[in-house]
Amino acid sequence: MTFASGSFGQLRYIPETVRGTVPVAGNAINLRMVEPTMKAAVETTKSSEVNANRMSSGNTRVDQNVDGGFNFELSAAEYDPFLESIVGGTFAHYGTNGLGAAFAMQTTATSVEAAVAPTGSSAFSQLVAGSWFKLVPGPTASAAAKAYFADAWFKVGAGSTSDSLAVDAATPIVAPGLIGADLADSKISQSIIVNGSARKTFSFEHTLTDVGSRLLYTGMEPNTMELNVEVGSIITGSFGFIGQTHDVRDGASYLPGAPVASKSFDVMNAVTDVGTVFEGDTNLLAGGSFIKSLSLSLNNNARGQKAVGVFGNAGVGLGEFEISGSMQVYFEDATYYKKWLDGERTSLTVGFCDSQGNGYLFELDKVMFRDGGLNPGGNNEDVMLDLPFDAFYDAATGRGIRITRALAA
Predict the structure, then answer these.
(1) Cα–Cα distances in Å, from 227 out to 30, 294, 298, 386?
(2) Where are the domains of the chain?
(3) Quick one: which of 31, 27, 19, 26 has its CA closest to 79?
């Protein structure tokens, strides 16, 4: 007798073209995850008949709720369809899928110089002032160059030309020994999404491979996303969905095609893979302040829509798109405590990358701290400042969140 073990599970998905309907063509995609949390709950109601035997005649199924999702360790490109769906946007890619054409690069502190100007979708003019990007040195670059650019994010400055990309003074190129060096076959990487109103749904299948059972969840639309950055840990997170139907069977897959393999980029950690943290115009990694932990939460406030004659959800409605999070900061001086007390508006930018330079940068343009406070601590404890925050729509930029993805290959 074999009993199912969670260690043998494989979660896979396919985008739907019709909400709640498994596509008949295409190929499902295997998904990297730590733990699946998808579930179905059937609601029953017991009969209230009164009769001589003083017992109910039975119960009947009256509703089904499908929700949950999966926990993950952050790695590049693996969860892009769900990032797009949770914010209601679509990645806009520089170059080809976010990676520009190769060019011979030289740098100054505030510019990227091309021996021959890139053209078409790789032209420097495609990079908007104020957006962020990464530089990917060519395969013959030194180990020092590769290590420096793997961690560093840069902001596009004003005044670029066809062969000279301006770099904002807040994010200068400061690699020792690299200024002016000729870096052949270099590339620029940038893919951007912002919050919008586009909607996407998915069919998921969780296979218990040791016993051959398959759990199907359809009409799954992202409702929540959590991202957690803790000292000494892998960057972790979760996606939560609300769906429409659920089924189970042994044997053949519900999803079409041959499964596509998961991406194979390294997972990112909260120490060596956090290369950019800006609060307003202050680079916190430059020694101004130090963060012990940081979290980010996105919530679409989705709800199941019920209808007579429909077992489960007839549809899924979205509510307010909420962005919140929290920082725990070592107390060095009154700067952040004062910002919290005064209700000061600020912005927050956090960038992660693996050792090859693949990663994400999250920008929140309008942030206000709330409900925080100073924890004075006791003997043998650090004085910590807890700074929960909310992020709002910024009319000046026309967004609440912008996510930039970079791929080195």
Answers:
(1) 21, 8, 9, 17
(2) 10-42+63-91+195-406, 95-189
(3) 31
Separation between Cα atoms, residue 31 and residue 192, nearest integer Å: 22
Q: Which residue has the higher pLDDT, 331 or 137?
A: 137
Model confidence pLDDT, tens digit, residues 297-341: 999 999 988 888 887 788 888 999 999 999 887 777 767 777 777
The residue among 383, 289, 376, 367 whose CA lies nearest residue 326 is: 367
Cα angle 89-91-95, degrees, rounded to a multiple of 5 = 160
C-alpha angle with apex 243: 238 to 244, nearest 5 degrees?
165
- Amino acid identity at 217: Y
Residue 315's nearest CA partner among 85, 15, 81, 19 is 19
Specify the DSSP class assigned to residue 75.
B
Asked if residues 66 and 243 have their Cβ atoms less than 8 Å apart, the reply is yes
DSSP alpha helices (H): ranges in 111-241? 143-151
Cβ(221)–Cβ(199) under 8 Å? Answer: yes
SS3 category, 8: helix
| pLDDT beyond 70 at 204 | yes
Q: What is the C-alpha separation between 243 and 397, in angstroms, rounded?
A: 33
Task: List b or e across 283-308, with b for residues whose CB sees 16 or more CB atoms inside 10 angstroms.
Answer: bbbeeebebbbbbbbbbbebebeeee
**Torsional class of 336: left (φ above 0), alpha (ψ -120 to 50), beta (otherwise):** alpha
**pTM score, two decimals?**
0.92
Q: How far apart are CA 222 and CA 236, in angstroms?
A: 17
Contact between 366 and 400 (Cβ < 8 Å): yes
- Is-contact 19 201, C-beta < 8 A? yes
**How many Cβ atoms are within 10 Å of 274's Cβ, its own excluded?**
20
